[in-house]
Amino acid sequence: MRKRIFGAFSRKKSGKSPAKQINSTVYVFSSLVLVSVLLLMFSSTSFIINAKNSGLSIFFGVRGGINEVTSFISRTILSVSELTELRKQHTLLISQLERFEEIQRSNVEIYQENIRLRQQLDFSRTMRYRHIPAKISGRDPNNLFSALVINKGSYSGISNNMAVVAWQDGIHALVGKVIQTGIFESLVMPVFDINSQVSSRLSVSRYEGIVEGQGSSETSLLMRFIPKRARNEINIGDIIISSGMGGIIPADINIGRVSGINVPEYENTLYVDVIPIIDFSRLEYVFVIEAEAADDKESEEYQYIKSEIFQDFNHD
Fold this sequence. Notes:
Layout: H1 2-14, H2 18-43, H3 45-126, E1 129-139, E2 148-150, E3 163-168, E4 171-181, E5 186-190, E6 197-202, E7 208-212, E8 221-227, E9 239-242, E10 254-262, E11 269-276, E12 285-293, H4 300-315
Antiparallel strand pairs: 1-2, 1-12, 2-5, 3-4, 3-12, 4-5, 6-7, 6-9, 7-8, 8-11, 9-10, 10-11
């Protein structure tokens, strides 16, 4: 009886039932078995190799990733550097191309200018008058841009009232006359100036008149004081030339072409509209000439031709 009481008291004092003690024992046993298995696995060669391989795989993977990132950064920096260099080369090539185009345009301009100068030289060789070549260098703003400025003056032998002609489109024609002379520049009054008056005649019918300007190169000239009886002998397109009267403008210099015929009812004369042969918007080079021919003032060939003409006239 005493033992039962003491046993009960002992179980009650420890606070554990027999079922709980058994469960604890099972847990401990299972843990020991698991630890044993793990120890066996770690102690085996295959596990060590697998662990080593896994470590190497992780290491190579990390190193490969680092290499990829490094390569990407290097390629990016290299691409930026190459792009910068390509931009520099592109800018240089554009500059060289522009320079080449400029040289090409300059060569074309020089070629065209040589053609024009050769034409002027050929015309100069055929002239029987003393002449001074000049270039249009500007327009006089004080004369409403009507007067022309040439780059030759008294230093080159130019004086007032000398005639100025030009060669354009295969024909020579009157430009005007010198009205003011400086040392190195001169002022030329063109035929379209409102103050310009040139003694002239129709080249076919030989009727004379006065060609007057109307103040603008865009406006036709007027040839006045032509007898009315000349009406049927004048045609559109007839050439008008200088008559040489007055001694300032030499004779037989082309002035323009008839573009219209006007017959006032209550006047004794008629007048015609004249389109200047010279296109003043394209005028570059001119020749300042004297009224007398060169070599006093005619060449031997000209003297010979004239003497033959007069001999034939006397025979007739």
